[in-house]
Structure formats: structure tokens, C-alpha cells
């Protein structure tokens, strides 16, 4: 691998004869197979050469994250003494960015035990209960466990055992979050998660009885808010802003179309796979995360052309089956956070006003546009993948023409 990256004999020999040459070369081959560019591999090789002088991997002795931090600090201080850098922050960060995956690849990185959280067994038991007994979706399980972990982490700081918890602890936790970080809906969601957890904890005998029944969150009225999404003209402007030959724009335009035209959720777009596209039948299938089933849609010509252009011109060569991948190696599927940033940053750049700036705002915009075009709520619900018309009722509020007809209806003849 060194021969492919370096031409000059002196430089090549320095890499060949440096410490841990075989371990460094194996990692470079691994990164090459992941699709890393030549320039990236060259920079990585140069950084690995100096890292190997500060971390001995030839003894097969595990390296802790603390040892790694110490080595990075020694390197950055050396750079400062040589006056090669003004600040040690960037040098130290680069050292860790290269050394961490290298040691992990070699199996020599001893990372902190994630299972050391004192309540991890309880959370795992609660998670298994929701999955096996309640049949809840993975998204719901993750969400509830996240809220429970937040609460239990506060108990650790107070040195309070779960058996000593009272309703006061829960009320103080919810009040503190509501006064600082969270809105009313988030506090209500957390209260439901904690109520579910303590109901399970009481059955298991982990805590005193009566806590679950006493947990009360803020009242959130069903259908109290209007769907929050930009106007359709703004959505069209958003999609049009990605009309260029830049690889990022080509990929993002296909994603924006799936959000806006089909109303797909973030997780559904992230989970789209190559086999979900049937080009012969012109059909796209999406796995609905809530219904746990696939739903097929006709592949709109403009969306199909946009996806096809991305696949042919931009998508990196990868064994991954997910359609949308990162543009830089190591290539991996886009996360929910990446999709949120994609939509939010483009809406902000165009100064498009919307209370919500994530992918779900485009889902709301899609539904609102369908209502304005005269589609029934049943048809809108089918498009969005709702299990019942109950979830679609909120969009009746944006059907101003229909509401005016109701308001103008004369009841005089019926009285």
C-alpha cells in the first residue's frame, strides 16, 4: 500500500521502516477498501507514522482511552515547543481522530464499558418487556429508554437508589426540565415514559408502589396545534435550490423530493434500500416504521429521474444496500441527525419561515398541499401511511375552503 501512496524513495523507506509498519499498512488497506480517497490515505499514513512513535502497538497490549489522551497531549506539546502550531487543540484532535479508529481496527483500544451504568440491567429488562410483551416499535423503545436513562442519571448524582425514589423525585425532574430545556410536549412525553417504567418497576419490585399512578405531566390537548410546515411555494423553491451539478445538491434534491412529494418520515428515507426501487414497474416501496410493513407507491417521473441521477453520478461504490450514503469515506447511511441538518440548513439558507425546520416539516407541507388540492382526509392518510383517519384529522384545520362551507351552512331549515 505504501508503494501506491508514495513515489520518492526516501519517503517510501521512512514509512516502510517506521514502527508498526505492518499494522499501519493493514489499516490503510482497510480504509482504501472503504472507499477513502488517495489524498485522505496519504494524510492518514503520515499521521499514523508519528502516532506509532508515541503508542507502541507491537506488544499487543490494550491501550486505554486515557493512555490515548496522554499520548495526544505529549504530541501537541512537542509541536508547540517546536513552534509548529500556535494552539494544541487542533493537533491533539487530529491525533485522536486517526489513532482511535486505528487502535479500534487492531482490537487494541480499551474503551470505557458502556454497560457500567448502574441501572443498565434495569433499562435492558424494561426494553425487553416493551419489545416482547407490549410489541412496541424500536423507535418508541429507544425514546422511552432515553427518558428513563436521563432520570436515572439524576439519581446517580444525588446518590439515591431506585428503591428510595418517591413521586417528589419525579416531579422535581420534570419541573427542572420544563423550566430549562424542554417544551410542554417534551415534558409530557417524558412523564409517559417514566409512568410506563415505574409501572414495570413496581411489578418487578424495584421500587415502592404508587409512583406510576401519581406521575402527572402537563396536559396536552389532542389536535391542539396546526400542522407546522412551509407553504408549498416555499417547498418548490427549496427543491429548486438544489438544482445544480454539485454532488451534494444532486443527492439532497432526491432526498428533498421524497420528503415533500411522498411525505416520507426521516427514518423511512434513511432506510430506503436499492431493492426497494422497482424500475421496471416504476414502483418505490417504503418500510413504514410504525406499521412494520412495506407500502408501495408509484414512482413519480421527476423523483425517479432525480434518484437515478444520484445513483449513476454521485453515489459512491459501496457494498451498503442503503440508497443514500455519506459523500466522504467511510461511506455509511445517513443518520436521522444528518437528514435533519440537510433540511434545516437549506430552509435557513433560503430564509424560509417555518416553526419546524426538520424533515417532518416537509411531511406536513405535503399533507397540507394535498388537502388544498382537494384530496379527502382518507386519501391524505393513505399517502402518509397513517393507520387510521384519527391521525389525519388535524389536517382538516388547514382545509379553509371546506371549513368555510361548514361555516356557511344554513341550519335554519332544520330547526
Offer a few descriptive terms.
415 residues, two-stranded parallel ribbon, mainly alpha, 5 strands, disordered C terminus
Low-confidence stretches: 398-415
* Total beta strand runs: 5
The proportion of residues forming helix, as a percent range, comes to: 55-70%
Shape: globular
How much of the sequence lies in strands comes to under 5%
Oligomeric grouping of the chains: single chain
Order of strands side by side in the largest beta sheet? Answer: 3-4-5
Give your account of this protein's structure:
Helix 9 runs antiparallel to helix 10, helix 13 packs across helix 17 (359-372) and helix 17 (359-372) packs antiparallel against helix 18. Strands 3-4-5 form a three-stranded antiparallel sheet, with no helix packed on it. A two-stranded parallel sheet has the order 1-2. It contains 19 helices and five strands. With 415 residues, it is mainly alpha-helical.
Brief sketch in words of this structure:
With 415 residues, the protein is mainly alpha-helical.
Write the layout of secondary structure elements.
Elements: H1 2-5, H2 9-17, H3 21-33, H4 38-54, E1 63-64, H5 65-81, H6 88-106, E2 109-110, H7 120-134, H8 138-157, H9 167-180, H10 184-204, H11 211-214, H12 232-240, H13 247-262, H14 266-270, E3 277-278, E4 283-288, E5 293-298, H15 301-313, H16 336-349, H17 359-372, H18 377-384, H19 400-408
Parallel strand pairs: 1-2
Antiparallel strand pairs: 3-4, 4-5
Helix pairs in contact: 3-4, 4-6, 5-6, 7-8, 8-10, 9-10, 12-13, 13-15, 13-17, 17-18
